[in-house]
Amino acid sequence: MLDQRLVRENPELIATQLGRRGMDVDLSSLQEIAQHQRDLEQQRSTLQAEGNRIGKEVGLKIKGGADPKGAEVAELRQQGNAIKQKVSVLEDEEKQVASKLKTQLLTFPNLPSAECPDGKDENDNIEVRRWGTPREQEGLEEHWAIADRLGLLDSERSVRIAQSRFVTLFGQGARLERALINFMLDLHGGKGYREVLPPVLVNSASLTGSGQLPKFAEESFRCADDDLWLTPTAEVPVTSLHRDEIIPGAQLPLKYVAYSPCFRREAGSYGRDTRGLIRLHQFNKVELYWFVHPDHSEEAHAQITADAEAVLQALELPYRVLELCTGDLGFSASRTYDLEVWLAGAGAFREISSCSVCGDFQARRSSIRTKEGKVTRLVHTLNGSGLAIGRTMAALLENGQQADGSVLLPQALVPYFGGDRIQPE
RNA sequence: GGAGAGGUGGCCGAGUGGUCGAAGGCGCAGCACUGGAAAUGCUGUAUAGGGGCAACUCUAUCGAGGGUUCGAAUCCCUCCCUCUCCGCCA
Question: How do residues A63-94 score in pLDDT, each as one tens digit?
């Protein structure tokens, strides 16, 4: 959420920064609302101060022996009543204005970081580095074909169970999924991340806190009878772990690694990635999340990205790192690195992790602060996939496929999977 | 789902109409005492918003929202949540 004070005092800055995202916004009316709200608050509190004074005076007079029904007290009562009238009118208006302001503020995306490169869309993203050597070869299968041939998953039966864009994993496929989750949790757990297994049903305050609501309601599944939604990412429950808290400075940074299934409606993606494990309504993900002191989020961003990359390296999967341009930035992010893994069968890089620094954007929405001496400050938050499990499996299948039809797995997975190869059954 | 109890500061807990943002305790921080520590003593210790260079000051907040009153943590109404027992259940 944008800082209300900034809206009042420097709307031009906001407009300029949102302009870098490709938004053409006129903030003058919002600024007006914000100023109006502040004016109303000033008027109201001045009146309330006067009312409080009168209330106390009445108390003192009565205590001092004045007749509670006498003229002197009656006069004060009348003054009190008059003020009460005015306050209540102002209060009503102020509430309306404040709620209008809040509603609007919640719809604005984060301002891009100064470091974030300007650009229009994904074509303007900047490749930062590459790791590993992509396997390029004619006749390689795509992962869904491999998975089908090896009996690792069944999409058609999943339609019977749920609908399209769901998969059911079987046998070695199910075991590989489970192995990957454990492998990633262990890897990050060994690097100072605290493991959490959060609820995957989250309330709307949580979704608002991390930025999914109010704008992206159509992207999440909602429970009909409760204020609960299926979480689209563990980022949501983990952000709300500390909602409305003041975290002592000595505890920062807080680093969490959370496994969760993720649920996304994928509205508007009809026809894209309809086969296999790339785009599903339900998928597994291991998520990294940091709460950091506001002065240290840049270093943290480099580190969380490195931690996500470490998974790909351990799995010997070639990848590249893109820095997203302002036009491709997510709603809550101020700066993002995407990790794209090489899919040998498809012959393309595909996003497998997105590592973002959100500055104080989520912290303001979620009211998560830290304290230095007398000063409270909003913390900064960061999140990064470490990694999306389904896409990791896809990459392992495509990059590890062998001429004999089997799939060779990286050594790091052997203790988790119980072997170094998926064999045709 | 049925029955009951309860929501007060970081925590415990007092407070049933009048300088109550709230006693007391614990915890925490600083100072004193000490060779050092414990113990002890003193001082300080909520959040948000507004104003002020600042010292500071005003307003709001005792689960949430309404109401009564000159004045509400305290009285009334509605809602939410938590806990306990029973039922059901992994």
Answer: 777 777 788 888 889 999 999 999 999 988 99
Contact, A248 CB vs strand B, < 7 Å: no
Q: Please work out, in degrees rounded to the nearest 5, the angle formed at the alpha carbon of residue A337 by the alpha carbons of A333 and A339.
A: 130
Q: What are the counts of helices (DSSP H) followed by strands (DSSP E) for chain A?
A: 13, 17
The whole-angstrom separation of Cα A250 and Cα A8 is 33
The backbone torsions φ and ψ at residue A237, rounded to the nearest 5 degrees and listed phi first, read -65, -35
The answer to whether strand B lies under 7 Å from the CB of residue A28 is no
**Closest of A416, A405, A342, A383 to residue A177, by C-alpha:** A416
A350 counts as catalytic: no
Three-state DSSP at A340 gives strand
Prediction pTM value: 0.93
pLDDT tens track for A337-383: 999 999 999 999 999 999 999 999 999 999 999 887 778 889 999 99
CB–CB of A354/A330 below 8 Å?
Answer: yes
Give per-residue pLDDT as tens, A26-59.
999 999 999 999 999 999 999 999 999 998 888 8
User: Tokens 């709200």 identify what position?
Assistant: A37
Structure tokens belonging to residue A159: 């339609």
Q: Are strands A421-422 and A335-343 parallel, antiparallel or unpaired?
A: unpaired
Q: In terms of DSSP bridges, do strands A194-196 and A348-357 run parallel, antiparallel, or are they unpaired?
A: unpaired
| C1' (B36) to CA (A253) span, angstroms | 33
Reported ipTM: the value is 0.87
Q: Is strand B within 7 Å of residue A41 (CB)?
A: yes
A51 CB inside 7 Å of strand B:
yes
The DSSP code sequence of A259-296 is EEEEE---TT-TTSS-STTSS-SEEEEEEEEEEE-TTS
Catalytic residue among A243, A351, A377, A406: A351
8 Å CB contact between A383 and A355: yes
Contact A334, A17 (CB under 8 A): no
Answer whether A319's CB lies under 8 Å from A340's CB: yes
Residue A231's nearest CA partner among A253, A250, A213 is A213
